[in-house]
Design brief:
The chain is an alpha+beta fold and 650 residues long. The chain is built from 25 helices and 26 strands. The longest helix has 21 residues, at 3-23.
Length: 650
């Protein structure tokens, strides 16, 4: 593994560890291990002269501007001539070698580095004038801030947002009209933000595709050598392959076969002569350079019959129409469903059950309806929501008609609550992602928590869902059956009670002797008296169980579960009823959670901060100058090592 690849690996590991520790209150590695990997990253950055934007060794300063300044490009950025004919691409290459690469579907950026530092980033704009987005570019997650080459370096790259990141970001937008239509639109809006803190949250990546200038470097008249040079500087480049007339058709097919699995949006390929001087000698037309050509996928269109329109409710209340048709082969896969997006498109296409329609895959990936050859217009817009049976309403927003569920208690609107319920720290049910839950709720299989444990009643229907066969079904049912045995704190946390986290749930359950009936009857005064709970949490907890609907749903859920009561050993007076704080790296325990569970199993409590109520601070470095050590000494709290604690357990 080369230095740059190792740096990328380390950055991913360290950032994941930081996220777990600071944002999720869990530890996936010791402080010692983190420091070791961090030091390795610093050493690699010094050796390579490259520092990537996502590295934890640097902090990106956020800035806001009133407007993006404009700047004229040194030379116009022309579009490429295009073809959909594979043979034409081979004929264009003739006896030369070329670089065949993805034509990424994002926003083209021109980047300038001086003295090894990024100094300017400008969008393509209209090809002649672009917008300066330097501050935003510094937040691109894979872009080098510092490179080893110290001369002036200018390159072009494509800023993109991956399909998984696009879906994740869109899921967080409640207003259907505000949702982005595709990753390119989202990327364009993200790159051109006036506040780069927003850009930083969008996971924008940049893939270099052309080196414009790097004076003093001999590239042997080869574009391939230029791309290798960019990789050495720490840039991720667009995937490319050196081709000639004898193998280009096979390589085009390779890209065609890879489209479905490619997470980076693309809308075709680009072929460029490897011989730089030959390409320049060809000049350009008024519109196109002659040293490169774009290849667009030929859309494969098939006729089929529309069988039904499914109406799928979402968390925003929007009910999305999905066309289900007789299966057809498109781009090597069987397709039988396509989103119709909204009521306006249903009406524009004049869809009716039994109509003959034509379908294709946009960019060889996303199934779409191309045309309706029958146009009966007989599809009925539902007046009732399929998830809850509540009334629906057609709303017109910016000339687009969409269908909404009016029931505020529709389970489809509570998708985040169901997602929490199945999460690892709650019921821990593998195989129920947010998108799968949304699909099951939309089909009417899940209305409340207990329904998740009754999904086996819908086996035949589940196995017919797209992307969810019998193997997926069996794995899901096995995970559900495993989750039937659950500890009470995890069950309480899974209910999604406002302000009640897993730690609070543990404290409350322990206080009431793991008796769920006592928990449900507890009033604010009783709950507030518990150390570590307080008025806000007490109020939320008591209010939740005053709701008759919540109690009825919990009763149904309890019919499906076996509550596991933890065995507490309160015989150890040195630990029982004592409060501990854990800090620093551990040597004998896998992580802090393992030590925390042992303390709690012996009747002790674990807090996140040192206070007058703390009995012991566990820190292997007793003499460190950490803030927790200082606080403990100020308050007279005893500082002990892991070994000291282990002796207390004996």
């Amino acid at each position: 593994m080369n230095k740059i690849d190792r740096m990328k690996e380390l950055i991913e590991i360290l950032n994941e560890a930081s996220k777990a520790y600071y944002a999720e209150d869990r530890e996936i590695m010791s402080n010692f291990e983190y420091d070791r990997l961090y030091d390795e990253l610093v050493s690699l950055e010094q050796d390579s002269g490259t520092v990537l934007s996502s590295s934890p060794t640097i902090n990106i300063g956020y800035e806001a501007v009133d407007e993006l300044p404009k700047e004229r490009h040194e030379s116009p950025m022309l579009s490429l001539d295009k073809t959909k004919d594979r043979e034409a691409l081979r004929d264009w290459l003739k006896d030369k070698e070329g670089l065949l690469s993805w034509k990424l579907d994002g926003l083209t950026i021109v980047l300038t580095y001086n003295e090894g530092v990024l100094v300017k980033a400008v969008t393509r704009g209209n090809g002649e004038v672009g917008e300066v987005i330097t501050g935003n570019a510094r937040t691109f997650i894979n872009l080098p801030h510092v490179i080893p080459y110290k001369g002036e370096l200018i390159l072009r790259g494509e800023a993109v947002i991956s399909y998984p990141d696009f879906e994740k970001i869109n899921e967080q937008i409640d207003d259907v009209d505000a949702k982005y239509k595709n990753p390119r639109n989202l990327c364009s809006g993200s790159v051109r933000q006036l506040n780069n803190e927003i850009t930083a949250k969008r996971n924008v990546r940049l893939y270099a595709f052309t080196l414009v200038r790097a004076d003093g470097v001999d590239f042997k008249n080869s574009r391939k050598k230029q791309m290798e040079f960019l990789k050495e500087q720490g840039f991720e480049t667009v995937e490319y392959h050196l081709v000639n007339a004898s193998d280009i058709l096979n390589r085009i097919q390779y890209f065609a076969d890879s489209v479905a699995d490619n997470e980076i949006p693309s809308d075709g390929l680009v072929l460029t002569y490897d011989d730089i001087e030959y390409g320049r000698s060809l000049g350009r037309t008024a519109k196109f350079p002659r040293d490169a050509i774009a290849f667009k996928w030929q859309d494969e269109v098939r006729e089929t019959k529309l069988l039904e329109i499914e109406w799928s409710p979402s968390r925003t209340g929007l009910i999305n129409p999905v066309a289900v048709f007789e299966p057809v082969e498109l781009e090597g896969t069987t397709v039988q469903r396509a989103s119709v997006h909204n009521v306006s498109i249903v009406r524009e296409l004049k869809l009716g059950i039994g109509d003959t329609i034509t379908v294709y895959k946009a960019n060889m990936i996303i199934p779409q309806i191309a045309d309706n050859l029958t146009g009966s217009g007989s599809v009925v817009i539902p007046e009732k929501c399929p998830a809850c049976g509540g009334n629906t309403q057609i709303r017109k927003i910016n000339d687009t008609e969409a269908l909404y569920c009016l029931n505020p208690d529709c389970p489809a609107k509570k998708i985040k609550l169901f997602t929490l319920f199945v999460s690892r720290d709650a019921m821990n049910i593998d195989g129920l992602s947010e998108s799968t839950l949304e699909k099951f709720i939309g089909e009417g299989y899940i209305h409340e928590f207990a329904d998740i444990f009754r999904l086996s009643r819908h086996k035949d229907e589940l196995c017919k869902l797209e992307g969810f066969g019998e193997k997926s079904y069996n794995n899901l049912i096995a995970a559900i059956d495993t989750a039937r045995t659950v500890q009470l704190p995890k069950l309480i946390y899974s209910l999604g009670i406002l302000n009640v986290g897993l730690s609070n749930a543990k404290i409350i359950c322990r206080e009431f002797g793991y008796d769920i009936d006592k928990l449900r009857k507890a009033d604010v005064e009783e709950l507030s008296a518990i150390d570590g709970v307080g008025d806000v949490i007490a109020g939320s907890f008591a209010d939740y169980f005053k709701d008759e609907k919540h109690n009825r749903e919990l009763d149904e859920l309890l019919k499906e579960l076996k509550i596991e009561i933890p065995k507490l050993d309160s015989s150890n007076e040195a630990i029982n009823s004592k409060t501990f704080v854990i800090t620093g790296s551990l040597e004998h325990f896998e992580n802090r959670n393992a030590l925390k569970e042992l303390i709690e199993s012996k009747g002790g409590k674990v807090s996140g901060s040192v206070s007058a109520k703390t009995d012991f601070l566990i820190n292997n470095d007793i003499n460190s100058g950490s803030s927790k050590n200082k606080k403990a000494k100020e308050l007279g709290v005893k500082i002990i090592t892991e070994d000291d604690f282990i002796k207390m357990t004996e």
